[in-house]
Amino acid sequence: MIKDSEDRYILAIESSCDDTSAAVMQDTRALSNVIANQDVHKAYGGVVPELASRAHQKNIIPVVEEAMKRAGIHKQQLSAIAYTQGPGLMGALLVGNAFAKSMATALDIPLIDVNHMQAHILAHFIKDERQAIPEFPFLALTISGGHTQIVLVKDFFDMEVIGTTLDDAIGEAFDKCGKMMNLPYPAGPHIDKLAKKGDPDTFPFNKPKVKGLDFSFSGVKTAVKYFLQEETAKDPDFVKNNLEDICASLQKTLVNIIYDKMLKAAAQYGIDRIAIGGGVSANSSIRNTFYQLREKGFHIYIPAFDYCTDNAAMIGIVGYYKYLKKEFSHEESISRSRFPIS
């Protein structure tokens, strides 16, 4: 049943990986955005799919209840329920899928399935005084532990991937290199923090030569691996004594790879609006490097930290725009571990 009301309240659920999140949207404004992290994966140095699924099952009810409580509304006021259909870990996705379908059926309100990668891009449209809203068309750079893509965004649901990683995502490169230096998982934030105290020109790492607008990060990981092996063979305390400089040098290399590709994309398509999203967009070096482009006439958009990592508010904003178009899903809709953005 579609509710006719001036106020549209959408409950959004995100469970694509290792964060269980629920948010309540009032049109484009997030009334709440609750995230439950899963610390259980730290002991394994990466996300364990089966453990993630179990944690989602444990967390989803209290997270939804807290989101509704913070929003200050009752479930009978909800206009629809949006959830992440994919891409992501299948077991994790199924938890959110089943919960969203059950609740939507019980309340007799529409169900809306959402592409996780579209959500990272449309997170820029969440109404928030901390962030500006880009105009169409713009170039979107989505960077996370599982994805690295350049997307030409012509409208809310008219998107085209024009560049993607050929192997690893940039977030995985950060984490895997951090593991080589015995940094805690996820290593990205630790590298960012240590890099601020280091010299980024101490250890130059070669950037891979990839044609077009595509990326490759496996070569950087391999270069770091052999570099550390060679240096620690000469000095067992090399990493410990040079950790900040190594992190700074690694971070500069990874940031320059995506920076150069975005400049190439901007020139190729004649677009000076760049929107960056995904968990790795929280990296301070990425933010500072791209913000400097404003001096060259570029318009740079990066969401507030709340909307960078996986969160339900970004699912909710997609749900809102699909609600306006009456693009609802059905009870037979399935989760998709792979889900092209276009």
Structure overview:
The chain is of the alpha/beta class and 342 residues long. The chain has two domains: 9-124 and 308-324, Nucleotidyltransferase, domain 5; 134-302, Nucleotidyltransferase, domain 5. 40% of the residues lie in helices and 18% in strands. It contains nine helices and ten strands. It has a five-stranded mixed sheet, sandwiched between helices. β7 and β8 form a beta hairpin. The protein is globular, with a radius of gyration of 21 Å. The model has no long low-confidence stretch (mean pLDDT 94).
Quick gist of this model?
This protein is of the alpha/beta class.
Total number of distinct structural domains: 2
CATH level 1 name of the largest domain: Alpha Beta
Order of helices and strands: EEEHEHEHEEEHHHHEHEH
Write the CATH architecture name of the largest domain: 2-Layer Sandwich
CATH topology of the largest domain: Nucleotidyltransferase, domain 5
How do the strands line up in the largest sheet? 3-2-1-4-5
Which keywords apply here?
single chain, 342 residues, alpha/beta, Nucleotidyltransferase, domain 5, 2 domains, five-stranded mixed β-sheet, 9 helices
How does the SSE layout of this entry go?
Layout: E1 9-14, E2 20-26, E3 29-36, H1 49-71, E4 80-86, H2 90-107, E5 111-115, H3 116-122, E6 138-143, E7 148-155, E8 158-164, H4 170-180, H5 188-195, H6 218-234, H7 238-269, E9 273-277, H8 284-291, E10 299-301, H9 312-324
Parallel strand pairs: 1-4, 4-5, 6-9, 9-10
Antiparallel strand pairs: 1-2, 2-3, 6-7, 7-8
